[in-house]
Amino acid sequence: MADPVLRPAGIDGSALPGPYPVGRYAAGLREFLRERPRVQLFGEVWNLRLSRAKVYLELRDAQGALPCSMWRDDYDALQLGAGALADGAQVVVGGGLDYYAGSRTSSPAFTFAIGELRVAGEGDLLAQLDRLRKALDAEGLFAPQKRLRRPALPRTIGVVTGEGGKARDDVLAGLRRRGWRGRVVWAFAPVQDRHAAPRITAALQDLAGTGAVDVIVVARGGGSLADLFCFCDETLCRTVALLGVPVIASVGHHTDRTLIDDVAALSCSTPTHAAESAVPVHCTQARADVTALARRLSVHARRALLHRAQTLSRLARAPGEHVAGERRRLHQRLREMRASARRRIDADERARVARHALVLERKARAAAHDARGATRLNALALALAAHDPQRTLERGYALVSDRAGGVVTSAGAARGAGDVRLRFGDGAVDATIRGDDEHA
Amino acid sequence: MSTPEQPLSYEAATARLEEIIKRLDSGQAGLRETLELCREGRTLVELCASELDAVGRGLEELRLDELVARLQESA
Question: What is the share, in percent, of chain A residues with pLDDT greater than 70?
Answer without folding.
Answer: 91
